[in-house]
Amino acid sequence: MAIPFLTLIMLCPIVGGIVVLLMPARNSEGIKVVSAVAMIGAVLLALAVLIGYNKTLGGFQFEERAPWIPTLGIGYHMAVDGFSAPLPLLNAIVGLCAVLVSWRQEDRPREFFAFLLFLIAGVFGAFMSLDVFVFLIMYELVLFPVYVLVAGWGSKNREYAAMKLTIYLFLGSLAAIVGLLVVYFGTGRSFDFFDMQNGIKNLSPDAFTDLLFRPSSLLGSLAARFPALSELARISRGWFPFLWIFVGFGVLASIWPLHNWSPDGYAAAPTPVSMLHGGVLKATGAYAAVRFGVQLMPDVAKYWLPIIVFLCLVNVLYAGLIAYRQKDLKYIIGFASVSHLGLVLLGICALNAYGLNGAGLELFAGGVMTGLMFSLVGIVYERSHERDYTKLDGLAKVLPVAAVGYVIGALAAMGMPGLSGFPAEMLIFSGLWQAAQTQSLMFANTLNWWYAAIAIGGVLSVVITAAWTLRVGAKMFFSEPVTDAWQKLPALDAREKFAIAFMSAVLIIVGVQPNSVMSIIDSGVQAMVKAFAG
Q1: Best CA proximity match to 278, nearest among 363, 164, 155, 392
Q2: How far apart are CA 170 and CA 65, in angstroms?
Q3: Residues 179-189: pLDDT tens digits?
Q4: Angle of the 494-512 helix axis to the 400-413 helix axis, nearest 10
């Protein structure tokens, strides 16, 4: 009997969270040890899945199935392909480091670490589930711990930020659910990803339009009065389910202009939640947009993504420029994270092997980089109680490990060769340039020539990122010490040093040997590219 690796990965934080809740509240050290052990187990299992994935065979592997509610087409179905195989490891790495940098948490530690572990478990389930119903359960379960952690342990404006975050993400997920239900009813009433995918292949181009605009429906009644509405839907080639799914999940990935919830959530959240939010939760949104939007409806994706790509470019440039203008460290990293997710979305919109490989690598490496940067902000703030970088100086002398970690994270963020950001961004920009030679489906006899301009615009993000990372690092870490109080800050403990070193090592390893991850991602991407070609 095969070992159910994926279920075991998800059970590590679930069991850890339950054990934590059963422990005495006064046993703070024991609670933290249990949380760390649970995440170490998850890291080892997720690493075993990544190493054990057969990239030559490709396809979905480590598959686990069990019936649940067969009359509704619902079952427990877990598996990973090359595109998703690195993501559980990303969640495990950032989750473990989030636990380690939270070791000083003494405000209701039992509840704090339990909610943190349940949040991580929900993300695991979302990355690995191939049953849409189970995926949506996991996706929605993430929202509750996020709200409680931000509202209960956050900083200033925490209740406002928690409510704003929850409303945005709930409305985004509601839009995606509506789109997925249209697919569910139109493809044979099964929530299994493979059944939906096969069902869509057997549908006519107007199937979803016929379903939505049937005479007995509200839209059908409106179309009878206004025939142009029905004609517009037919011309738009099944726009309804795809756009609602892609944009709905895109809210979590902070697609412009639906990104406004994100920086406030980052600023108010406690450090480990910011790490997971920026490094992992956003990746969940981008992953879901690919898996249940692009991969389910590749023909519709080819029609609409050449237009959506403009929103993604705004993500990259607008958020990067706002990050440059900020003084609050959490807002800086928060907007920078929105910018980097814009790069992921640009890679997805390229709809070719280069772009999708770059997007997959950026999801993994960019998530680790964002987790590293947020951990450094939290470490500095916990000691100095100051988030305005213009008021900090000379920290490299008292926090040298944090300074080294910042340099590595900053260089990775700006795409410096030898670090993880370089291969990811090069692939994304190459994919965009290549996409400029593809035929437009929306405009007859026209190439998608604007992708070349998008690529050039996207490259400007490297300059913007370099501008804010160099300015912040020079002032905060490497300026001449002026304020004596900053030179008396407590040194990093061994757990914090390990977390910084661990995430920094991942960025270096992926930068020096990108094929260690990219060869696996590519095995999943090639299946997508074949679907686009078909």
Answers
A1: 363
A2: 28
A3: 888 888 877 78
A4: 30
